[in-house]
Automatic annotation (TrEMBL):
Keyword Hydrolase tagged: yes
Protein name listed in UniProt: Nucleoside diphosphate-linked moiety X motif 8
Keyword GTP-binding: no
Gene: Nudt8_0
Molecular function via GO: coenzyme A diphosphatase activity; metal ion binding
Alphabetical keyword list: Hydrolase, Magnesium, Manganese, Metal-binding
Boundaries of every Nudix hydrolase domain copy: 57-199
InterPro entries linked: CoAse (IPR045121), NUDIX_hydrolase-like_dom_sf (IPR015797), NUDIX_hydrolase_dom (IPR000086)
Domain of life from the UniProt record: Eukaryota
Species per Swiss-Prot/TrEMBL record: Amphibalanus amphitrite (Striped barnacle)
Length: 249
């Protein structure tokens, strides 16, 4: 038995064949199918995030417009006017506060989208609604609706200059690339949290819009979007003192 085992050990080894990782297909227009929509809605019920969520009635709503520009699927964003009192100069999805005449939060998102960028969207274009989150100004519950608005030409949009400084498109391929997705860390005393950030586009996408984008991509495109947002524990006071003595920070 020993001799046979030794013979096997001494025998020339066959070269190992390492399977190359299978890359998902290209993110073309064909990805936005009825089957994809069905799977997206199903996965939404299982979304769990370590951020503040709310089950209350949203008092504000935004629309996350899935669209195609030159045949490429992606998302449409706005850059808010720097003259606004709140969220000035921030990247956002079109949307705003709910008015009394709005029948529901979806009506708010659709109305605000048309007012802000001149894009009319019908209710039957809705794909689903993301978990409502609290804004950092006043803790206002915000709903985010995902709709497929079809093929767009950017020159056909008409942003309201008092509210919107820019409207821009980011392809799903761009958003899913690891080099374009990062994170930032917020600290307040011993408390802290991490936020997704999307880089290398016309404007940085972060804050509440970054969180909604992160949820949307992970739920809609799990084969392509693999970004994880690590949580970094706050540095304790004694750790800071030790690091200070060692000259590091």
């Amino acid at each position: 038995m020993l001799l046979r085992s030794a013979a096997r050990l001494a025998a020339p080894c066959r070269p190992l064949t390492v399977a190359s990782p299978v890359s998902p297909p290209a993110l073309t227009d064909a990805v936005l199918t009825p089957e994809r929509r069905e799977a997206f809605v199903s996965r939404l019920s299982n979304v769990r995030l370590p951020v503040r969520t709310t089950d209350g009635e949203p008092s504000a709503a935004v629309l996350a417009p899935l669209c195609r520009v030159d045949g490429r699927p992606g998302l449409l964003y706005t850059l808010r006017s720097s003259a606004l009192n709140k969220h000035a100069g921030e990247v956002a999805f079109p949307g705003g506060n709910r008015d009394r005449q709005d029948a529901d939060p979806l009506a708010t998102a659709l109305r605000e989208t048309e007012e802000e960028i001149g894009l009319h969207v019908e209710r039957d274009q809705l794909w689903g609604v993301l978990p409502s989150l609290l804004s950092r100004f006043g803790g206002k519950p915000v709903a985010a609706y995902v709709a497929d608005v079809g093929e767009l030409r950017m020159e056909d949009l008409h942003p309201q200059p008092d509210e919107v400084e820019d409207v821009f498109f980011l392809s799903l391929e761009h958003l899913c690339k690891p080099e374009n997705a990062g994170h930032t860390q917020w600290r307040r005393g011993d408390a802290g949290y991490s936020l997704p950030v999307f880089l290398n586009g016309p404007h940085r996408v972060w804050g509440l819009t970054g969180i909604f984008t992160h949820i949307l991509l992970g739920t809609l495109l799990p084969e392509w979007y693999k970004h994880k947002v690590p949580y970094l524990r706050p540095v304790r006071e004694r750790d800071s003192e030790r690091d200070s003595r060692s000259g590091s920070y």
